Amino acid sequence: MRILHVCPYFKPSWEGGGPPRFVYELALQQVAMGHDVTVYTTDGFKRRVRAPKNTMVDVDGIKTYYFRNLSMYLTANFNIPLPYYLPVVALKQIGSFDIIHIHEHRTFLAAVTSLLATRHNIPYVVQPHGSAPRMVKGWQKRLFDTLIGNRIIYNAKRIIASSRIESQYYKRVYPDLDDEMIVRVPNPVNIPEIPPRGSFRRKWGLEENRIILYLGRIHERKGLNLLIRAFNQIRDDKLKLVIAGPDDHYLKRLKKLISDLGLEESIILTGPLYGFDKFEALVDADVFILPSNEYESFGMAAAEAIACGTPVVVTSNCGISEWIDSKSGLIVQADEKKLKNAIMKILDNGSFHPRTPRVFEIERIARKFDEIYNEATS
Q1: Which of 178, 269, 313, 355 has its CA 20 to 30 A from that of 72?
Q2: Taking 90 as the threshold, does the pLDDT of residue 105 lie above it?
Q3: From CA 109, how far away is CA 308, in angstroms rounded?
Q4: Is 0.70 topped by the overall pTM?
């Protein structure tokens, strides 16, 4: 099958969050299964990718087009990728694909490829990756949907959700969407090599400490204020809170809260961690926390923590909560007292023994997408 993935950012633009990693892992597995896979993307999010632009590049067997963004200022500051050369290539190639998989649909890439797909009668599926709700950038999203977003969604053969929570939001934003069009597929967890324990602790001088870890974007809706206040209630000089991730317009306020509570010596801000560095942190943590106080479509880092053998605490706002079993961690409401109690329960209880659920295996997920694509093309 000739598959086209359309996504704003791709390897190595990991700062773009979960979607670039998802698309890469899925495309890589599809190539291994014998599919002919192409990716249309842009040349970077926070910085330009060092690769040939506007032409095909082989990325681990994946035919990849890094279309040059018109403005990196718009991309880096407002997440508005404008790959001006995309239509030139898409006009020539769209008709040759069997299926198109659009990731994050409110983009110039999605608009161009969906219109061309409809013109050439090529079926496509859409996977918003948590971006469908309008709590953030509400008027911009409504405007885009009025102009073309509604057409992109309603003309799709299938809409992919990573959790029940995410699928419920689809119907709120797009009320005419048929329930049968929505398919739930969890995000894959594929860690090529689990690091040995101790490396992260040695790097940060934490050999004698117990570690609470948050890993993700530093954003207001991630509930980091709740986590810090919950941590402040735990009186343990050996306990350290590590917050790792890129700033998403919230770091300044976070540092002020830490300072106001006098926690500068107990909280470590590492900045972004990617690849092996990220997994070293996940392996060495005693408990991983995802304290989101608003909608979180999935929660990839929590799934990766479980795969690394680290128990997790996630709030009920997180889509991954439906995939977590009692051996892997606890699910609580977004409340500082409940977070504190859950953290203490895991730290003081040795009965948590996480292991990766089979539903997260990339092979199973790729086979599920084969079924979805076959249904869409039949």
Answers
A1: 269
A2: yes
A3: 35
A4: yes
